[in-house]
Every structure is written in structure tokens, then in C-alpha cells.
Amino acid sequence: MKILIIGAAGRVGSAALAACLTKQHHVTAFLRNPSKLPPELHNHPRLRITQGDATSHSSLVEAIEDTDAIIQAAVYGSNTPFGTSDSEKVVRCIINAVKEVQASRPIRSRPIRLWVMSGQVLMDIPGYAGKIEGDVFPIHPEHYKNYDFLRNDAKDVDWSLLCPGRIDQGEVRVLLYNIR
Fold first, then answer.
1. How far apart are CA 51 and CA 29, in angstroms?
2. Model pTM greater than 0.85?
3. Residue 178 above 50 pLDDT?
4. S-S: 8 plus which of 13, 40, 51, 124, CB 3.0-4.6 Å?
């Protein structure tokens, strides 16, 4: 499978990159600064490195064109002040680029699979009567907006919203299922 990882040098993106390469997938690492990837990866036979901006429609379209699946890990665990990350803009740009590329493919081709990272802010909390974590413990408000955008404006995109909990530095242990 050909997988594009947007934000491949970050905490989540690098874990996804390691897991995908371990599973023998062909990966395109899309990032602003390729020097942030470990030097030993720069010549990996199944890794292509693409420098770009996740808010640039043309850069995204070019990176997505030969892709089966996308992992959007850019600005996932944003260190920006509360509510000021580019997450909304990035998610919208990616969705629009996926729609454009998907529309240019043959009708019977397999849809591009998109995984959007959003953080545990959108996870249901047992015992809180339908509230999600962001209702109980306010976190980045853009996660709500991204979720609403995906539900309302990305109906023709094959997407999933992933809400991993806290990810600390250390040994990478990632389990990826249902990737064929």
C-alpha cells in the first residue's frame, strides 16, 4: 500500500512512519522540514520524502496523486496556545485536495483512505451522559470544528477520526490494523 503521512516527523507521525515501514508499506513523508527525519531514513528504499506545507493545496494534490491512504498527523498535538493552531486549515486543505484527486481517478477506483488525528478530546467518557472529554476538560476547540467539518463536508471522503490518548517520548510501540 502507498501511504502518505502528513507531519511525518512529529511525535504521532514518526510513530506512524515507523509502523508503516515495518509493515512493508511504501510511504511518502510529507513535512515542512525534511531534516527533522532521522538521517538513517533518508535513503530507506520504501520511503519518499516530500517537502511541503499542509496548507498548500497544490503541494497536497501532488503528494496525494499516487496514494492509497493518508495519515494526517500534522498539528495533531499542537504546542500552540489554546485554540490557535492551524489544525482547521490543515484538515480543510487536505479534504479539498483528497476530493480533487479522487474526482480525477477512474470511477471504479478504490477511494483514498484518510485517517485524521484529533486527540482524545473527542473521546466519549463513560458515565458522563453523552459528553465528550472536551466538554468535561476543555482542550483545543479546533478538534470540535474538524469533527463537524468531516461529518458535514467530507461525506464523499472515506475518512476516520483517530483519537489517541497522550503520546510520550520513548520507545515507539504502534499497532496498526486493517491496513492492506
1. 8
2. no
3. no
4. 13
Q: What is the DSSP letter of 132?
A: B
Residue pLDDT, tens place only, 111-124? 999 998 875 554 45
In angstroms, the CA 91 to CA 98 distance is 10
What is each CA distance from 15 to 8, 46, 49, 147, in whole angstroms? 8, 16, 16, 23
**Closest to 98 (Cα-Cα) out of 9, 4, 26, 1:** 4
d(CA 14, CA 73): 9
Burial of 64 (0-12, 13-18, 19+ CB in 10 A): buried
Could you tell me if 10 and 33 are in contact, meaning their C-beta atoms sit under 8 angstroms apart?
no
Instruction: Give the separation between CA 23 and CA 175, rounded to whole angstroms.
Output: 10
